[in-house]
């Protein structure tokens, strides 16, 4: 176990009392990550913090956000048309999933031309206009840089694959066949099958961490690294306010590309072989120095495979990024490896994961807080018991997410309480990983019904259905008769127009919670201390800055939860700053099912 985790678990009484805090702070100095160090490192006020720590980042999946052209898919102008809505949510930056020219084998995560916009999303002028218009709203645009790999239709790859001696011959990872003519090693790609594909013209295989249509760039080649930096600088000069770097932990491969331990299909997961390979940070320091260093443009890395205990290499004073997505809390059920084999999990595991990220960034570093993105099922299904009231669950999660220390990354629809879909057959699904996981389940002997149940639970398409703006046809997403993925059938209640009218909606709550965070130095800049760790239903933590304290409590169960040790905090005089059940009197000895609450201590 990570010894640092203990630092964030103390009895509630000790956190309540200032003198006890000081004492524990001194006693904890031995591992260099003490609570007092965390306090000292917290900015005295939020004013000293960079803009991207104070704001909310909203992830928009443009293909499903808003169509302005009356077609089945959304576009950049559609994002621009909804800036007022985002402003009202307290959003200061929009992360756009990739909008560059792409054959869309993986919905834009296969880039054919980094310097131009895919026509399905609009034009370069649309992008320039979005950046300008967003700027007028005080919102920056964050671009998604997919640079572990390109599309196989990228001109770089077309040239590289044409022969063994061309100017880009070494831009990708080429290897001769094994002695038997097969793939050079036994790695399995993340979307299934061998991670190698043969090209006749070279008589060689190329490596792809994801689909065959997504060949990996060779980062060992300095020319590749230089061109990647050029791409970043091109978009920085256009006014991008930040970059999200896709699949970044895979850019460095281990020397010799050794076989991994084979599983039943004879292949070994490429993730285990290549994620976070020694030496990767050198590439990333170079990238940072040649791009955003010294500017207020931020970089956030998608860091699958980086452990919480390694965060100090990645963020903070000596880090390579301003923030990284650390995924341990998103895979509590082990579904990353296989959807069909996912297992149950306890609330304590979620607490451990979140507290470990907090502890390892407390005195040095910063991370996003996130519970959804375009690759994950909806959080109201992912983190709450089956049958939960999804509106209550969405509010509960919003309280936790915006109550934690870090920059909230909110995924489109999360603020409206969107939930998963369950389509009647695999043919409805667009996501390549859904098809792969379905096939794998069938190959393991599961019935089509069982395989489909896994897809219902984990498909990335759960997050990719069209945004629901109002009760009109196709939820106001497009005037076209059909949409690229079906609109969720709950659109008549879960939509922006209806929820804007109701104070007690998920959206109404989200806006109040965002305002509370924006106004509160304690929530923005205070340190974090988990309390009541052993409580089986409630996740609770205290945020503290300059002796001001707030207690965040969230009941993750569908039963009432007695406050236990936490009860001492609640009296008739306790100032409840926000409560998911509304503004009426809150019970002083319990949290109602799925209730979350923030109190001033
Ligand atoms: C990242 C993206 C995901 C994509 C993959 C390959 O994990 O978030 O959507 O499929 O990289 O680029």
Q: Would you kindly provide a written description of the structure presented here, covering whatever features stand out?
A:
It is a single chain. Among the domains are: 18-42 and 527-600, Golgi alpha-mannosidase II (Immunoglobulin-like, Sandwich); 51-151 and 222-260 and 274-422 and 493-514, Glycosidases (TIM Barrel). It is 28% helix and 16% strand. The protein has 20 helices and 23 strands. Helix 15 packs parallel to helix 19 and helix 16 packs antiparallel against helix 17 (448-458). The two termini are 31 Å apart. Bound molecules: alpha-D-glucopyranose. Alpha-D-glucopyranose (GLC) binds next to loops.
Brief write-up:
This protein has about 600 residues and is α/β, with parallel strands linked by helices. It binds alpha-D-glucopyranose.
Annotated CATH homologous superfamily of the domain at 51-151 and 222-260 and 274-422 and 493-514: Glycosidases
| Small molecules bound | alpha-D-glucopyranose
Structural class: alpha/beta
In what range is the share of β-strand residues? 15-25%
- Spatial order of strands in the largest sheet: 14-13-11-6-3-2-16-15
| Sheet with the most strands, sense and barrel status | 8 strands, parallel
Molecular shape? globular
Output the radius of gyration. 24 Å
What's the CATH topology label of the domain at 51-151 and 222-260 and 274-422 and 493-514?
A: TIM Barrel
What is the terminal-to-terminal distance? 31 Å
* Assembly category: single chain
**If classified by CATH, what would the architecture of the domain at 51-151 and 222-260 and 274-422 and 493-514 be?**
Alpha-Beta Barrel
Query: What is the name of the CATH class of the domain at 51-151 and 222-260 and 274-422 and 493-514?
Result: Alpha Beta
Strand tally:
23
Helical stretch tally: 20
Mean pLDDT over the residues: 92
Helix content: 25-40%
Contiguous uncertain segments of 5+ residues? 1-8, 17-41
């Amino acid at each position: 176990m990570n010894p640092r985790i203990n630092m964030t678990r103390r009895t509630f009484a000790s956190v309540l009392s200032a003198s006890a805090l000081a004492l524990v702070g001194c006693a904890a100095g031995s591992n260099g990550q003490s609570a007092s160090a965390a306090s000292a490192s917290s900015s005295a006020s939020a004013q000293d913090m960079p803009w991207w720590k104070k704001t909310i980042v909203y992830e928009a999946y443009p293909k499903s956000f808003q169509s302005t052209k009356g077609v089945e898919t959304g576009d950049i102008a559609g994002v621009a048309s909804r800036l007022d809505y985002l402003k009202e949510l307290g959003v200061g930056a929009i992360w756009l999933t990739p909008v560059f020219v792409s054959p869309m084998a993986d919905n834009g995560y296969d880039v054919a031309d980094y310097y131009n916009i895919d026509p399905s999303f609009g034009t370069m002028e649309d992008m320039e206009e979005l950046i300008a218009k967003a700027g007028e709203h005080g919102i920056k645009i964050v671009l998604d840089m997919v640079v572990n790999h390109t599309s196989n239709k990228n001109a770089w790859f077309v040239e590289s694959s044409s022969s063994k001696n061309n100017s880009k011959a070494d831009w990708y990872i080429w290897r001769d066949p094994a002695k038997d003519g097969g793939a050079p090693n036994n790695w399995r790609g993340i979307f299934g099958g061998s991670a190698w594909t043969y090209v006749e013209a070279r008589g060689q295989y190329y490596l792809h961490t994801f689909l065959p249509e997504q060949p990996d760039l060779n980062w060992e080649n300095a020319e590749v690294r230089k061109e990647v930096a050029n791409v970043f600088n091109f978009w920085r000069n256009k006014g991008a306010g930040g970059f999200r770097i896709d699949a970044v932990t895979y850019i460095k491969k281990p020397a010799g590309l050794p076989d991994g331990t084979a599983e039943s299909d004879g292949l070994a997961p490429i993730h285990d072989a290549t994620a976070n390979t020694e030496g990767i940070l050198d590439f990333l320091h170079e990238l940072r120095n040649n791009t955003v260093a010294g500017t207020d443009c931020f970089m956030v890395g998608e860091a699958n495979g980086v452990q919480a205990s390694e965060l100090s290499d990645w963020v903070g004073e000596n880090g390579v990024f301003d923030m990284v997505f650390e995924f341990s809390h998103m895979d509590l059920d082990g579904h990353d490896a296989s959807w069909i084999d996912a297992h149950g999990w306890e609330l304590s595991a979620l607490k451990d994961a979140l507290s470990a990220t907090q502890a390892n960034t407390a005195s040095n570093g910063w991370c996003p807080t996130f519970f959804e993105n375009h690759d994950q099922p909806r959080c109201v299904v992912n983190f709450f018991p089956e049958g939960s009231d999804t509106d209550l669950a969405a509010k509960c999660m919003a309280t936790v997410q915006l109550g934690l220390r870090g920059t909230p990354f909110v995924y489109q629809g999360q603020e409206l309480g969107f939930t998963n879909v369950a389509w009647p057959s695999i043919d409805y699904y667009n996501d390549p990983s859904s098809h792969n996981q379905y096939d794998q389940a069938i190959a393991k002997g599961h019935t089509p019904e069982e395989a489909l149940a896994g897809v219902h639970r984990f498909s990335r398409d759960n997050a990719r259905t069209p945004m629901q703006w109002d009760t009109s046809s196709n939820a106001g997403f497009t005037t076209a008769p059909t949409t690229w993925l079906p609109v969720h059938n709950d659109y008549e209640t879960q939509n922006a127009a209806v929820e804007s009218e109701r104070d007690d909606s998920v959206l109404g709550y989200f806006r109040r919670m965002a305002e509370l965070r924006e106004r509160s130095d304690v929530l923005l800049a205070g340190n974090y201390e988990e309390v009541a760790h052993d409580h089986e239903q409630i996740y609770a933590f205290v945020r503290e800055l300059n002796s001001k304290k707030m207690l965040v409590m969230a009941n993750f169960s569908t039963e009432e939860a007695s406050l236990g040790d936490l009860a001492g905090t609640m009296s008739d005089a306790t100032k409840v700053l926000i409560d998911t059940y509304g503004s009426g009197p809150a019970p002083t000895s319990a949290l109602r099912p799925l209730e979350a609450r923030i109190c001033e201590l």
